[in-house]
Structure formats: C-alpha cells, structure tokens
Specification:
This protein is mainly beta and 105 residues long. Helices cover 14% and strands 54% of the residues. It has a single domain (4-104), classed as ATP Synthase, domain 1 (Sandwich). A five-stranded mixed sheet has the order 2-1-9-8-5, with no helix packed on it. A five-stranded antiparallel sheet has the order 4-3-6-7-10, with no helix packed on it. The protein starts with a strand and ends with a helix. The model has no long low-confidence stretch (mean pLDDT 92).
C-alpha cells in the first residue's frame, strides 16, 4: 500500500473508504495530523472539521466527535455524526443553529 487507507463510519453508514495522503482531526487536546507510517494510536476527537488530503485535493467533513484508530497505515474513524462538505444543507444547518440558540436562551 503506497499511502494511508482511511475508513470513516457513522452509526448510519460508511461515509468514506479509500487511500489518502493524510488526515487532520480536531483532537480532544488540539488538532493532529496522521501521515503514512504514523505510530499506532487510539484517540478521541471533538466537534469540528476533519480534513482528508486526497491525491488531487482536500476533502472536508463536519463532525460531532468520535474515535480514531491508526494501525499499520490504516485509519479508522468512528464518528458520532459526520457529513462531507458537499452534503451539508446550509438552510437546514442554519435552522438547527437557530433552534439550539432558542433552547439556550
């Protein structure tokens, strides 16, 4: 395998599966990046943006947190909730934000 292999899974579906150059995750203690030949780790991540560097361009995912495992150039992301940037419905997200703000008021 020439690169990292990434699998992103949410409770409802497999979101992504394929070879990547790197992944940057909003870790509990701050952003961290995983490259080829990274040491084995298991870590949690928080609400934020995950950046996946593909061969030709980056791909972004909005996440509500989860767990990441890295072992032998394979990365497994188990996300509580996750959407790729091209799946995000701006109007739906804005309405959800307004509902949340009303609940907090």
């Amino acid at each position: 395998m020439s690169e990292l292999f990434l699998e992103i899974i949410s409770p409802s579906r497999q979101v992504f599966s394929g070879e990547i150059k790197s992944i940057t995750v909003p870790g509990t203690k701050g952003l961290f990046q995983v490259l080829k030949n990274h040491a084995p780790i298991i870590s949690t991540f928080e609400i934020g943006m995950i950046r996946v560097d593909l061969k030709d361009k980056p791909k972004y995912f909005a996440t509500a947190g989860g767990t990441i495992e890295v072992l032998n150039n394979k990365v497994l992301v188990l996300a509580d909730s996750i959407e790729s940037s091209d799946e995000i419905d701006y109007d739906r997200a804005l309405k959800a934000k307004e509902r949340a703000e009303k609940r907090l008021a």
